Amino acid sequence: MTEAPVDDQALREEIAALLTAARTRTSGLTDCVAEPDLVRQHSPLMSPLVWDLAHVANQEELWLLRNVGGRDPMHPEIDPLYDAFEHPRAARPMLPLLPPKAARQYAGEVRGRVLDLLETVSFSSGRLVDRGFAFGMIAQHEQQHDETMLATHQLRQGPPVLSAQAPAPPPADVRKLPGEVLIPGGPFAMGTSTDPWALDNERPAHLVDVPSFYLDTTPVTNASYLEFIAAGGYQDARWWTAEGWEHRQRASLTAPLFWERDGAGQWLRRRFGVTEPVPAAEPVLHVCWYEADAYARWAGRRLPTEAEWEKAARHDPAAGRSRRYPWGDDSPTAELANLGQRHLQPAAAGSYPAGAAPSGARQLIGDVWEWTASDFLPYPGFAAWPYKEYSEVFFGPQYKVLRGGAFAADPVACRGTFRNWDYPIRRQIFSGFRTARDADFA
């Protein structure tokens, strides 16, 4: 991301490229299916794809054309239809939504006007546009919905419509990696007060003293998780919290979502319409918080706290500062992390050595969202901005924090301070985890 001092023209070009990239991805996720699939609800957990298509345009109009540009609403009558807080996902198919052709036309009209606005807006005309914040917020918002739409595609039944190149094989040194790395204790700067496009829940930067702990070098793999299954982990209440055990029984959990056994007892998974053997070396995917927590207990370990995760991902002990990413401050590239739907699956555990943190931990950014032990709570000094519905209404013990992004997340919406959250029962998201343990010294 561009930092001060700001070259306005370079910032305009950067914003235009990011908005275009987000729209290209949105189009790819919606143009690949026929109209019946766009308007159908593939799961009560998800909106119809056509709702997401018009919703991202409606938010873009609201924040950029109306709030930044001072324009009148284009179609005020549709605002309630695309208010995410007014209608739960399960009820959205019953709304008089814009049909696909009209939704695409609306999104195109909004984008054309936004690009015109971008050419003339002054980035010094107020906090909302300082260093392009509102434009960055909208680019992030659309990419977040693109990830949600990708999850809808995973839930969709029918022949495959998406394809992508598989990740490269893991590097030769993967077998020599230690199982865990030591994160030395001490204070570090958590969160940010300077990242121009950071969202309100990432702010402000504050010192947190984290005792020494050990962290898995890579996310937990399918092979390791299969050991938990084979050991009867799903049938043994000792490894589950009371709430987790109740949910496991009620939901009849026996394996990660989209897994099943074939007639010969081999574990298979369904991935975007393709059924394939579960790849042993990949990080486990589509597990809920309760499953991750139970595995960690079974392994004699625990989930890392959010502060532990961020210290492992950002703190540079040699320089005594927090980085933007595990590898430094440079933006992600294909050599550093698996992001942006470049691959439709995680890379093998141990991949991306160039993206490793100072401790040697790998894949802290990309591949799978990682569940942490922490509830989603505000940082000391938190202030909701520019609207409290983004974060504030979700704070509390009912949500658990996920960190690090996944192959489905875009770099614009993924950084070392970025906080994701969800209910501990959720599995349709691209979630995995790694485990931790206390160090046996202060």
CATH-level-4 superfamily name of the largest domain: paralog of FGE (formylglycine-generating enzyme)
Q: What's the helical proportion of residues?
A: 25-40%
Q: In the CATH hierarchy, what is the architecture of the largest domain at level 2?
A: Alpha-Beta Complex
Distance between the termini: 37 Å
What's the pLDDT, averaged over the residues?
97
- Please give the radius of gyration in angstroms: 22 Å
Query: How are the strands of the biggest sheet laid out side by side?
Result: 12-11-10-13
Briefly summarize what is shown:
The chain has 442 residues and is an alpha+beta fold. It has helices at 8-31, 35-39, 49-68, 100-120, 133-155, 222-230, 242-251, 289-298, 306-314; strands at residues 180-183, 186-190, 206-210, 213-216, 259-261, 267-271, 274-277, 315-316, 321-322, 369-376, 396-403, 420-422, 431-432, 436-438.
Polypeptide structure, described:
- Strands 12-11-10-13 form a four-stranded mixed sheet.
- The mean pLDDT is 97.
- It is globular.
- It is built from nine helices and 14 strands.
- The longest helix is centred in the N-terminal third of the chain and has 24 residues.
- It folds into two domains: 148 residues, Four Helix Bundle (Hemerythrin (Met), subunit A) (Up-down Bundle), CATH 1.20.120; 276 residues, paralog of FGE (formylglycine-generating enzyme) (Alpha-Beta Complex), CATH 3.90.1580.
- A hairpin with a 2-residue loop joins strand 6 and strand 7.
- It is 30% helix and 13% strand.
- The chain is of the alpha+beta class and 442 residues long.
- The two termini are 37 Å apart.
- Helix 1 packs parallel to helix 5 and helix 3 runs parallel beside helix 4.
